[in-house]
Every structure is written in structure tokens, then in C-alpha cells.
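Figure caption, in words: inputs first, then the predicted bound structure.
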Amino acid sequence: MLRGHMATAAVTLLWLGVLPLFAQNLDFSYHNFGQMEAVLKKFNSNYPSITFLHSIGKSVEGRDLWVLVVGRYPNKHTVGIPEFKYVANMHGNEAVGREILLHLIEYLLTGYQSDANVTQLITNTRIHIMPSMNPDGFEASSYLDCDSTNGRTNKNGYDLNRNFPDAFEQNTDTIQPETQAVINWITNESFVLSANFHGGAMVASYPYDNSYTTPPDNDVLQYLAQLYAKNNDKMYSGMSCPSSIGFNNGVTNGANWYKIRGGMQDYNYIFSQCVEITLEVSCCKYPDAATLQGHWNDNKVSVVEYMKQVHMGIKGQVLDTNGKPIQNAVVDVQGRLRICPYRTNKNGEYFLLLLPGTYTFNVMMLDKSMVKTITIPQSSTLSAMTYNFQFTETTSSPLPATGSCTLNGSNSSGSTLQVCLIMFFLRTVLVLLYNIL
Ligand SMILES: *[C@@H]1O[C@H](CO)[C@@H](O)[C@H](O)[C@H]1NC(C)=O
Ligand SMILES: *[C@@H]1O[C@H](CO)[C@@H](O)[C@H](O)[C@H]1NC(C)=O
Ligand SMILES: *[C@@H]1O[C@H](CO)[C@@H](O)[C@H](O)[C@H]1NC(C)=O
Ligand SMILES: *[C@@H]1O[C@H](CO)[C@@H](O)[C@H](O)[C@H]1NC(C)=O
Ligand SMILES: [Zn+2]
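Bound structure (2-acetamido-2-deoxy-beta-D-glucopyranose present):
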């Protein structure tokens, strides 16, 4: 009898011990700024070894722009580990992505060391998650408001997705604090792959947003958008929304939908070497909280599979004769010249997202270059093929960085495109010369 009571007591105690764990589960409701901040701080304090929480700046009204980093080494970059990011809620009234990202963080943290796939992803990737780029706009928007523009802009009335320096035309907008913070952040890290969340349509949209020309990585961009859409049944079905047309297989080129100037996606791709697509994940911009669990379920596989793509292609370092990494060396892929040349980071690293196939690489310094043809195999591992370009002769300095392609977020109005086009032309000539000699 006593034993029975003790067993019951033990079970009850066990339950009491477990209950707080369940209570910790993130609820499917909207989190206002204070609640979101508390959730992020709690994630950080519950998982200190695999998270790093920092504010990359402040909004006009002084709210912190929080980013939670998840990774085996969350505090700083590790050579060979690619940097990935998700940004949501840059339009403050488009609220679903913000909650999807909070649930994604929970999924990653609770899966670490309990789900082998999640563990491997966290071990091999540094994942930056910014649930809200426009916290002031969110506070100014209204629950159940599906279509209005209340809360879309920042407090100064600027649409942040029109506020970035633009490679194709002059953007006369004054750069807003939220935009500048993101530009500084992007300059601070060598991001490889990214996506930003919106609402009001159902589609994965890829660059360019402000030009009908075909980007050099069009195959990769289409592949990525399709991968996201394919894993989201509603998006893939091409459903239309009350305020938006439907899209074939849930994907579109940005400019083919409608052109925008100063978008974040083009900025990432052109000026910061980071491939970014735009995800429109709900017809209603700020829907009933009762739909949030469904939205998470619809996007859960896509958000995880998309992150894994940061491991496609090839990565490595450019090294001098002594094995010392070379910063700012240009790594071009023949036939795929970017507007701004791809340059190695301060560790001499490059990360190029490429589909399996054979590619010729031109690695360039001021007075040296190397041409190398490499086959990238189909890979099922969560790591890109690794190849280091090592120079065998004494090398000098890398090509000088020029104008807006220096990626430092300075005011690039006016001559941006001209500078880029001149660089593009010079590089083409250099490549031709190297190949002839
Ligand atoms: C892990 O990934 C593999 C390969 O994608 C998949 O077959 C398996 O079901 C995944 N396991 C879990 C627990 O999700
Ligand atoms: C950039 O500079 C130009 C003139 O130098 C100025 O008119 C414009 O407002 C600036 N733009 C930003 C975004 O700072
Ligand atoms: C810059 O990166 C370092 C290392 O990841 C980080 O500690 C710091 O907070 C970052 N600053 C910004 C503004 O992103
Ligand atoms: C940005 O680059 C420009 C052009 O190279 C340079 O003049 C400026 O000092 C740089 N700004 C920062 C903050 O590094
Ligand atoms: Zn939007």
C-alpha cells in the first residue's frame, strides 16, 4: 500500500518536473515586441552553448533589432562553416513570418542532440534568425487586418523593402536606421544564403527585383525558389489570394511579377554576395492567431530544407604559396559573371552555391590568376565540396575593391551601376586575356 503511494507520489513528482518543460513550449499566438524579446532571451538562456543573441541596431522608436544565432559555434564565424540568415516582418503588418521564425528557433533548439538531422544542420551551419526587421511597424499594425498598409512602413513612413541602395537605378530614399542596421550586419558577416518573409500572396520570388535581365545564377535561384515552393503544398498549388494572382508552381521572378527599386533581395545578391529569395507565405497579412499552427505546419519542411541548401556547391579558401589566406581575391565562375565580382572574405574563404556540374573558375589577384576546371558532384552530405585554390608562385595583392562593390554600405547613389558595369567590363577583358595567355 505504502509502496503504491510512493510510486504514485514519484509519478506525480515526475509530472511536476516535466510540466514546466511543456509549459515552456512556444504558444501559437502573436508575440508583441516585449513578448518576442522575452522569448528570444529565454531561448538564449536555455541553450547558451548553441545560441548567441544580439541586437544589430535600433528602430526609429528605439526598439532593438534582435538576431538570434544558432550554431555549434554561435558567437563568431568559423572557417568552413557557412552563414545563413532568415529575416521576417520588414513590412511590420506582415506578421506570419515573424511567428514562423520563432517556431523555427524552437524546432532547432529542441531538436539539437535529439534529432540527428537537426543536430547535423546546427553543427555544420551558423544560422542567423531575425524575426522582426520592423518592430515599430508591427506595433502599429492591427490584428486581423489582411490587406491594408497600416504598419507596413517604419515609423518614418519608409517602406524598408524600397530603402536599400539599388544597382539598377538611383535610390534617392534616405537610408533608415533599420535598413542601415541590416546593411552593417550584412557587411559584418559573410552570408551565403538568405530568405526574407512577407505576406499578402503565396509565392517564392527570386532576383532580380529591379531588372528584367537574367541573373548569372538564374539556375540556382530558380532551384531554390522551387525547392521552397515544392515543400509547401499551398504555395506549390499556385493558389491565388484575394489581393494577389496565383503563380505557376508557386514561384516567380521578382521583376516579372512587379519591379521594385531598393529591395533587400537585390541588395543581398548584388552587393553582399548573399543569395536571397523573397517568401510570401500567407494571403492574409495579419491573420487569426488560430491559423498560426497551420502556417507553421505548411512551412516547416520548406524552411528546414531551404536552410540545408547553404551547403550546395563548392567552398574553400584562396591561399598564397605559404598557405596564408588571401582576402579580396576574386573568384569568378566562367559564364556566370556577377555584377559585383565575388571576393574572398578576411579568411580567404569563398562559398559558391552551384548545382552539380563542371565549372571553370578564374581566381584573380592584381597580377596573378589561376584557371581551374572542377566537377561538383551530386552530394547528399550537409557540406559543400571543398576546394582550396593555392597559388604556387609568389603572389601580390588582390584586385583593388572599387566603389559600391566594396560592400561597406556607404551611400552608393548615382554612379552605382556605372561603377559596377566598368568593373564587369574590366573583369571580362582580364578573363579573356588570362585565357589567351
Ligand atoms: C533525416 O533526413 C533523412 C534524409 O533526408 C530522412 O530520410 C529522415 O527521415 C530524417 N529524419 C528525421 C528524424 O527527420
Ligand atoms: C546619398 O547622397 C546623395 C547626395 O550625395 C543624397 O542626396 C542622398 O540623400 C543620399 N542618400 C542616402 C540614402 O543617404
Ligand atoms: C558583428 O559580428 C560579431 C561576430 O559575429 C558580433 O559579435 C557582432 O555583434 C556583430 N555586429 C553586428 C552589428 O552585426
Ligand atoms: C566605404 O567605401 C568607400 C569607397 O571605397 C570609402 O571611401 C569609405 O571610407 C568606406 N566606408 C567605410 C565605413 O568603410
Ligand atoms: Zn511585404
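Residues 16-23, 407-416 have pLDDT under 50 and may be disordered.
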